[in-house]
Design a protein that fits this description.
9 helices; 270 residues; two-stranded antiparallel sheet
Length: 270
């Protein structure tokens, strides 16, 4: 139901802007930027966060979330015009009673969700059964993607904790060697230890939590579009005129956008 382009301008601008702010702050607050580099601390924070997430969630769900991160970095635009045109073509032939032509039009529908609903209508299944099947699919999509977003929020909660854990390990080493080093070495070791807390906060608030919010927003938009297509399938079952279907769904989408502006635009400006 959606088209993913190669790059997402807002995500790219946000990440570059955030890293630029951190870089500028580091330049003005440190004489040596090398003090912010702690590969061992990064491995502890990232690896510990991932390990704790796997303990709390099924491995297959965590792997699915990581595979979906690439699509989250892409622009997403609902293919409203394409799906509407395909639905209207099916409606045209179905209203005329041209079953063979309607079946061929159904095979051209890109969206699996819409294609399933239209095929059930052509097969003359009861409308209650059609609605039930499509509602179960919507519920399945909502449950899966809400679970994925929750995994990202779980990682956002774990990352600062493992950052603090890395800092504590560093402090333990410092205190254990307190009588054997001078103040300059203690300051450098303390700075090195605190970088793990920095990594945890950055990963939580610049990566995991924003991606979870973005995934939740996309889920809202996707479910909204699926509900629109469900209404279209019901109108298709009723053999309504394609013009009536188009006007009804357009009005429905506009009303949904006004009621839920956070989901973003689904219709092109008229």
């Amino acid at each position: 139901m959606k088209r993913i382009s190669a790059t997402n301008k807002s995500t790219l601008i946000g990440l570059v802007g955030g890293l630029s702010v951190l870089g500028i702050a580091a330049v003005f607050s440190h004489q040596h930027l090398g003090g912010l580099i702690n590969l061992g601390g990064l491995v502890m924070v990232f690896g510990g966060t991932l390990a704790a997430t796997v303990v709390s969630r099924p491995m297959r769900d965590v792997a699915r979330v990581w595979r979906s991160l690439r699509t989250l970095m892409g622009d997403e635009e609902p293919e409203v015009d394409t799906e509407m045109a395909q639905l209207l073509e099916v409606a045209y032939w179905h209203r005329l009673g041209q079953v063979r032509a309607a079946e061929q039009a159904v095979e051209q529908v890109r969206s699996p969700f819409l294609r399933t609903g239209a095929r059930l209508v052509i097969d003359r299944e009861p409308v209650d059964d059609i609605v039930k099947v499509m509602q179960w699919r919507i519920a399945g999509v909502r449950a899966k993607e809400q679970g994925d977003a929750q995994i990202l929020r779980t990682m956002a909660a774990f990352a600062p904790a493992f950052g603090m854990l890395g800092t504590l390990f560093g402090l333990i080493q410092i205190l254990g060697n307190l009588g054997q080093v001078d103040l300059g070495q203690i300051g450098g070791a303390m700075s090195f230890a605190l970088t793990t807390t920095l990594y945890g906060l950055v990963l939580a608030n610049m990566v995991f939590k924003p991606l979870a919010i973005k995934m939740e927003r996309r889920l809202q938009q996707r479910v909204m579009m699926m509900n629109v297509m469900l209404e279209g399938v019901v109108l298709l079952f009723q053999r309504r005129h394609p013009a009536i279907i188009k006007e009804t769904l357009t009005a429905y989408m506009r009303q949904q956008q006004e009621a839920h502006p956070q989901t973003g635009p689904m219709l092109k400006a008229a």
